[in-house]
Amino acid sequence: MPGSIVQTKLYVPRRRGATVPRPRLSDKLSDGIDARLTLVSAPAGFGKTTLVAAWLASVPPPERLTAWLSLDQSDNDPRAFWGYVISALQAVAPAVGAGSLALVEAAQTPTQVILGALLNELNALPNDLVLVLDDYHVIDDRQVHEGMAFVIDRLPAHVRLVIASRSDPPLPLARLRARGELVEIRAADLRFTLEEAAAYFGDVMALDLAAGELAMLAGRTEGWIAALQLAALSMQGRGNAAEFIKGFAGDDRYIVDYLVEEVLQRQPEQVREFLLQTSILNRLTGPLCDAVTELDGGRAMLETLDRANLFLVALDDRRQWYRYHHLFADVLRAHLRDQRPDQMLELHRRASAWYERNAERPEAIRHALAAKDFAHAADLVELEWPALRSSKQEVTLRGWLDALPDEMIRCRPILSNAYAGVLFSRGELEGVDQRLRDAERWLEWTERADAQAAGMVVVDEDEFRTLPGAVAVHRAGYALARGDLVATVNHAHRALEIASEDDYLTRGGATAFIGLVAWASGDLETAYRSYAEGMAGVQRAGHISGTVGTVITLADIRVAQGRMHEATRMYEQALQFASKQGGAVMYGTADMYVGLSELQRERNELDAATESLRRSQELGEHSGFSQNRYRWRVAMARIREARGDLDGALDLLGEAQPLFMIDFSPNVRPIAALRARLLVRQGRIEDALMWAREHGLSVEDDLSYVHEYEHITLARMLLASGSRVEAAGLLDRLLQAAEHGGRTGSVIEILVLQALAYQTRGDTRAALVPLERALALGEPEGFVRVFVDEGRSMAPLLQAAAKAGIAAGYVHRLLTAFGAAEGEPPDRQNSMKVEPLSERELDVLRLLATDLDGPEIASQLMVSLNTMRTHTKSVYSKLGVNNRRAAVRRAEELELLSRIRTR
Amino acid sequence: MQTNEGGGGGVGVGENYEIRLKGHLNARWADWFDGLTLTQESDGTTVLSGSVIDQAALHGLLAKVRDLGLPLIAVRRRKDQ
What we know:
The complex is a heterodimer of chains A (903) and B (81).
Chain A: H1 3-10, H2 23-31, E1 37-41, H3 48-57, E2 64-70, H4 78-92, H5 100-105, H6 111-123, E3 128-134, H7 142-153, E4 159-165, H8 173-178, E5 182-186, H9 187-190, H10 194-204, H11 211-221, H12 225-235, H13 241-249, H14 255-265, H15 269-278, H16 286-293, H17 298-307, E6 312-314, E7 322-324, H18 326-339, H19 341-357, H20 361-370, H21 374-391, H22 394-403, H23 406-410, H24 413-425, H25 432-443, H26 448-453, H27 461-481, H28 485-498, H29 504-521, H30 524-540, H31 547-560, H32 564-579, H33 589-602, H34 606-619, H35 628-642, H36 646-656, H37 671-681, H38 685-694, H39 705-720, H40 724-740, H41 744-760, H42 764-781, H43 785-788, H44 794-803, H45 808-818, H46 839-848, H47 854-861, H48 865-879, H49 884-893, H50 896-902
Parallel strand pairs in A: 1-4, 1-5, 2-3, 3-4
Antiparallel strand pairs in A: 6-7
Helix pairs in contact in A: 2-3, 4-6, 6-7, 11-13, 12-14, 16-17, 16-19, 18-19, 19-20, 20-21, 21-22, 22-24, 24-25, 24-27, 25-27, 27-28, 27-29, 28-29, 29-30, 30-31, 31-32, 31-33, 32-33, 33-34, 33-35, 34-35, 35-36, 36-37, 37-38, 37-39, 39-40, 39-41, 40-41, 41-42, 42-44, 44-45, 46-48, 47-48
Chain B: E1 15-22, E2 37-40, E3 45-52, H1 55-67, E4 72-78
Antiparallel strand pairs in B: 1-3, 1-4, 2-3
């Protein structure tokens, strides 16, 4: 954000010279100390700003910190608005904005997340704080209003919001009023009383008026301060005040109009010209005024006007920047428009040129548009586009583009592409294609000179060089949004072909899209690599992408590959990183806890999984992607399932269904399939059958990653309904596809089902073959539920595996998850039970706890090495371990060694 | 105060509106108010009248009235003769 402009917006106005003390109003403001919101709502010229500024000065820092933000039309972009609000707060409380400001700049951060972070930062402040938003009536953006309502609702007790506006803002005022949390100062309060008017004319303006004259003035103006000020200015140095007042009081004309005319007439020509010409400016400074008037002495003139109290408001302490009182400026502008409409356009042009020379492009654009200098404005917008793109100020850009005539945009390939990007990011897909085509047709010209002869306009050469790639990336995204994966890949590859080596943005974006397509196609390793590489490139280009969002996507891919430990590490690292961000809740933190809970659930750490979900919920909905509400419920449903509460799980799935959001990740576990899976487990085969029919699923389907889960669920249904042959055939094909795609989690699940299929036929021996493979794959990554979720039918199979010496320790752990180590009912959750060790086995155990090696132990026990090994194996099996160190540790846990010693 | 109900008016044709304000407004302000006709009434009010393209434009005009601090008395949509 341009430095000078920001400072003037944050400047707390200071009144110079005398003012009329208004204790009744100051008291009203001070008394409302518990009010969240103070609203000063009155038309222009009622002294709102003056009152608030004076009141603030009465309680100086550090006892109470004051942040000020003067709003204008361009703050109607939520990003700009909140960026300025946070900057204003940060200027007086440096701790604020530590995290939230970064979120403002990050891509795709929903406003509520930014505000959540901001509220946390405000909560942490030790001081009292007042934030003043002046001229709030300029805001008409719905999102900004919604964000304001959100913040007001959650404002900490030591923070107070003051809004000054010409009309009541669309915020929940009635509710606040009813709760006594609103202090209002309205026009009726702000009107000068007769006493105050007397004080003003007598003490401040040094005008000696008779009581009758005063009464007439007060009556005519109805206490309207602006009018009183203008009247006072009109009367200064005038011989016959009485005559003026009589003429004024008897006139019906719009007061301000009348009075400003009076004041203007009494100024020297030079001053009048200056006022009229500079009235087009939102802010005034010496050199800018000189550029507009094409004269010298602007700075001196401003100082003169300031001293004469001619409606200049200082915007900084050094008196470099000013603005006119709004009413005064409005009247001046109306005069200017009426008298010299052409000159008005020319003045805007001069102002635009000055701003351009002084590197304040947004203001230059505003003035160029006002000057109807559309070609030049379009050039400036094109040059400003990269800055807007990285700060994601889409609303601002959209406003400018909409203000330009369409031909101006269509002949500029860069703007056409920019427009496509804006539409795309706001989900308005209809116009995207046309805008991209507008850009593409210019790129088709082989000779630059010919294109320019045909009307193409390019101003930003650097952008133009990267344009073909940028358009290709937009095409890729557009194709992905329409579900055309093939086209997405084609466009992405084309972008990579044509983009230069250092065009990180284009290359990164294209690579990321390739990753997303690979994901949807089930090529998970490519998906991971490409997406990670792509996002790294985008970040390098200076776009602070949602790092957390990237982590979640990559972790999801790893989980699909069955790489649970790695996914867990990614979440834990990211959560650690997020917790270091100075109290701000980072976007997506809630999602990471949900992801973590799913991994914990698989490892059968159900309490930990529940705790993770609780922490996710605690963070609030605003700290997660919009998809998180859905994911949370699905994760909780699966935990309920693990605890045996299948009806509860189904209920939650029902809640989750309407919350599903379409995003760019492939929907690999459709909720209908999740539901069907539970139905099968409940034995409701008919219902499951209905699901399969409704979704047109059959064993003859071509297999694809996106439908894998559905097909596995179909296989379950077939097994449960006795169609073993069909199920077996489908499972074979699914296994092949999953292995081919490196989807270990799916492979394990399919193998388990294959084992169960044999088991139900009574062929335990055959069942052990796929089961052994499943166990071998599952053990290193700690899979538990994929086995245990299969219920009672799994337990005897696992016991058989243990007896056959397959992965004894692991199997034992799985069995204890059932509680079935001693043949107990499988759905009992209890702590580990150990089969008692024989005397001999205890002897071996005792010696295992020493430094002796195998042969030495055998000789101690006076048995053969083989016998010792058999004993050792049995000990391990009973303790549920598979190595010596673990056996000793377990023995210590169970206090077996001490028992030995006390014998 | 009568105002047009329902969604935005059609673009291009517009509706005829009358906006009544307290105080006399000089004819010079016509341009400020997007070319509406200003009529100073004998009761000390001013009526802005003319074609307003749609609801958004109407609210824009009302905001301008607000910004000048002119008390708003009535807004009326006129059925075309």
